[in-house]
Amino acid sequence: MSGAQASGGLPLDGAYANIRLRPVGVADVPLFFEYQRDPLAARMAAATPVARRDHDALWRAILADPAILARTVVVDGEVAGSLTSWTQWEQRQLGYWFGRDHWGRGVATTALALFLGEMTVRPVHAYVAGHNGASRRVLEKCGFRPDGIEGDGSLLGYVLEL
Prior knowledge:
- By secondary structure, this protein is α+β, with helices and mostly antiparallel strands.
- The chain contains 5 helices and 7 strands, in the order βαααβββαβαββ.
- It has helices at about 30-35, 40-45, 50-65, 105-120, 135-140, and strands at about 20-25, 70-75, 80-90, 90-100, 125-130, 145-150, 155-160.
- The longest helix has 13 residues, at about 50-65.
């Protein structure tokens, strides 16, 4: 893959050549559960961690729906996180979650670029909490641009579109 580029012109060689996407397997779901339980990660995503039963039910539904694109991100053989894309509000949506050990190393940006290369539908929308500048930068590096602001007088988050 040396010299290859992903969507947005991001290089996929060197330090990032070890990042791969694969279909989500049932064995990945328990680790995804642990990642979403991390209090800092939940705060950054403005999300509330869910119980195991609810988390497992959500992933069963995701894996059973052929209209949802879901990938596991693997770095050096280790599961780093997940990426999903689904249709909601008559728009294609995108979401991702990474374990904290993989933050700040370019993993999310590279994985997202690879994921967008698999997707054929545009536009794609993503929501990011207003206080999560790192996630917003990941989206912007992959070509997303602001498409709206969600809030009730105070900034709750941004909607970005590619």
